[in-house]
Amino acid sequence: MMLEVRDLAVTFATERGPLRAVDRVSFSVAAGKTLAVVGESGCGKSVTALAIMGLLPPAARVSGSIRLQEREMATLTPEEWRGRRGRELAMVFQEPMTSLNPAFTAGEQVAEVLRLHEGMGDAAAFKAAIALLDRVRIPEAARRARQYPHQLSGGMRQRVMIAMALACKPRLLIADEPTTALDVTVQAQILALLDELKRETGTAIVLITHDLGVVADHADDVVVMYAGRVAERAKAATLFARPEHPYTVGLLGAAPRIEGGAGRLASIEGTVPDLLKPPEGCRFAPRCPFRAADCARQPPLAEVAPGHASACWRAPLDQVLAA
Amino acid sequence: MSEALLELGALRKHFPVRDMLGRSRGAVRAVDGVSLTVPRGSVLAIVGESGCGKSTLGRLALRLIEPDAGSIRFEGEDLRALSAAGLRARRREMQLIFQDPFASLDPRMTVEAAIAEPLRLHRIVPRGGERARVAELLERVGLRPESARRWPHEFSGGQRQRIAIARALASGPKLIIGDEPVSALDVSVQAQVVNLLGDLIRDLGLTFVLISHDLGVVRHIADRVAVMYLGQIVEEGPAAQVFAAPRHPYTRALLASVPGTGVKTLPIEGDVPSPITPPPGCRFHTRCPHAEAICREQVPLLEGFAHRAACHLQDRLPPAPALHEADAGGDRLRRLQAFFTPTGAPA
């Protein structure tokens, strides 16, 4: 396995008490595969990404194990993390405008990564940067390399971010909602690019997204998170064919589809729980149409089939259909 | 087709662009000759990517910004000919819902004050009758009447959007324009608000213009769809037809780009050109996989009757790729999802 996350937990101290944003999350990603972590705002997917990158603020309490190529990362010092980032793991964020430095050209920012991590000289690094910009399909890369972020479109800026992330050929790429700020035609281009780079380089990708359509088209495996916990974990094709957690069932029915169909959307009543005072037991229970007395106890994430796990006492859900 | 509630004729709005010294540097052609008819009781969606002019068009339709040219008729009356007082009186019949429910509610006003404001402004209910009307409106949008005494910050995003909808309904409008009204919401909450909007449109006989980039939401609630690209409409027609048999290459590219539809053809390359210097001829020709000489030279007109498209090649294009029925979960999933059928209980 390229990446193995075991029992990852992240707690923040807030004025109103400790907030456990991620609660015993486990998953793994193989080389050349894409794992999607899907869920709505506040489910803990972005905090999970930052924990793997070692980018959480020092005040965050992190426990559990994060192994990259069999080597434990969770015990690294901040300096050791910094050495790993870029070379072994890299990240692409949602908003490229805030991640790029407005005072430097696109080419300079990619070249900076190469100077820092690969020890290249100025001229060699800039030349390699142009090659990378061309690689991520930026037209007229040599000219664009001399432009500043504000002179580039949103899609082009995201390509620059991907070029920076790929500069040192990382083994693991974490993409946190990389296309959420982009228009749909540009989103399709960027996701196709990530797929292509994964095939060519064998990089493992962790794709953080709220969009099940993106999961269907671009992920091999998927983890569905709800209120800081894993609700369901499966092969992507299995998740769509045989969802085994009620939250997944609701999410699949809530997104309107362009093929048309059903009159009313499936609607998950109520809202996501406040993580400062989460409900006892299963956190989805207050919104779940299948809840029963046993949901007051937290259900374990248990396999319903090989490689397919659900944290629900009702799983396999055929039980509720038979009832 | 029933009578038109709103008719836009050749609407144009250019925003001048000036450099740091105030010299003119051309203009953003935000809306560049748009004609549309919205029949009473129908839902028209205006779709397109950022910068296509769809939000500007929505504001022009309500005369919240003044067009450079063109006509706006509401129930046959020319809105551009109205005096300020006349327009104010008409405004109670036309409301706008914004994307961001956090920005559109005044944090210093209780929910009751926010919803009662238009009631007072337009003197809609007799003095003392406001409280009862606010309670009625809150129930109508699925909130408890007790919510009236609370403040906007006490509500989630979805609940705030319900409050914004209640406020828009307060003056008894005939037309509501929703500018990305569910785009800021998580999908589970978005589904609740989409269902609510569908119910309100049906039950109150509203005419609704939905401005959205989300083609799933559009397919779900719109009767008709207009697709915009660089300030112009490139295709317009009944939603079912536009989605099943899109005539314009741009509409096809938009649909093929939506993730999860199984369409594997490569989406179009490149970015939208600048609306300051749109390409000559067909504005889409720089990205169109089918473009020919005529597309670079001549501006195509919207052709057709109920389903119109502005493409020189529309009769010669290959058939649009079929969107596959996303039915991986089959009958089992449908039966499970039936348990999530909304009850309409207050949120």
CATH topology of the largest domain in chain A: Rossmann fold
Radius of gyration of chain A, in Å, reads: 21 Å
What's the end-to-end separation of chain A, in Å?
A: 40 Å
Straight-line distance between termini of chain B: 37 Å
Oligomer: heterodimer
**What structural category characterises the helix and strand content of chain B?**
alpha/beta
Structural class of chain A: alpha/beta
Mean pLDDT of chain B: 91
Largest sheet of chain A: 8 strands, mixed
Question: What is the element string of chain B, with H for helices and E for strands?
Answer: EEEHEEHEHHHHEHEHEEHHHEH
- Biggest interface between chains: A-B, 57 and 60 residues
Count of all domains of chain A: 2
How much is the average pLDDT of chain A?
93
Number of strands of chain B: 11
Number of helices of chain A: 12
Rounded to the nearest angstrom, the radius of gyration of chain B is: 22 Å
Could you tell me the strand content of chain B as a percent range? 15-25%
> Order of strands side by side in the largest beta sheet of chain A?
6-7-8-3-9-10-12-11
Q: What CATH architecture label of the largest domain in chain A applies?
A: 3-Layer(aba) Sandwich
Task: Give the spatial strand order of the biggest sheet of chain B.
Answer: 6-7-8-3-9-10-11
What proportion of the residues of chain A form beta strands (DSSP E)? Answer: 15-25%
Family (chain B): Belongs to the ABC transporter superfamily.
Keywords (chain B): ATP-binding, Nucleotide-binding, Transport
GO molecular function, one term (chain B): ATP binding
Protein name (chain B): ATP-binding cassette domain-containing protein
